[in-house]
Amino acid sequence: MNRPVERYWERRLENCRKSLKSNHFEAYLANDRAGAKRIFMEDILPKIQVKSVSWGDSLTFHATGILGEMRRNPDIEILETFAENVSRDQLIERRRQALLTDLFFTGSNAVTETGKLVNLDMVGNRVGAITFGPKNIVIFAGRNKIVSDVEAAMKRIKSYAAPLNAIRHPDLQTPCIKTFCCMDCNSPDRICNVWTITEKSFPAGRIKVVLINEDLGL
What we know:
The chain has 218 residues and is an alpha/beta fold. The chain contains eight helices and ten strands.
């Protein structure tokens, strides 16, 4: 058996990794979510000094199980920005403080084959952290996030990722929850507010991207 599907993803992921590296991202390739966790714990974490950690909303990050490891480390302060029974104002303030952490985890809505990160945010805390603030950013991205270019990335986000993200938050009342597609709405619950395109990591290596050979996240 010549494993066409496996070979396709291995080649496509490796090409994407090389593109990210050429754009000054620190880029890794994992076979699965367990491999992504191992890469972080064994290859990334030992090279950085971490006393404080926070994260942006990411199903892919949670799938790795890394958050549990961080919470079990008594030497690391965890800044919880999604805690229950905490007021909205308090959560927003914590998200502001999260921009000062040593390490921030999140995902990416799309990664282009040319090595760019494309993201769309509601509040801006996630893309704000990617852009500036935390000393180290670690991004986990499943193979389903890879697209050809920025135009394809924006189309993927608006037509698929954004409506699904709205649907998974039952407290939101946006048109896309009913139509299952972007309506370019003016809803007060609109989650599509802040675009970022990260063409290169500055300083070099500040943003670390772990590509995962699994379909993960939205």
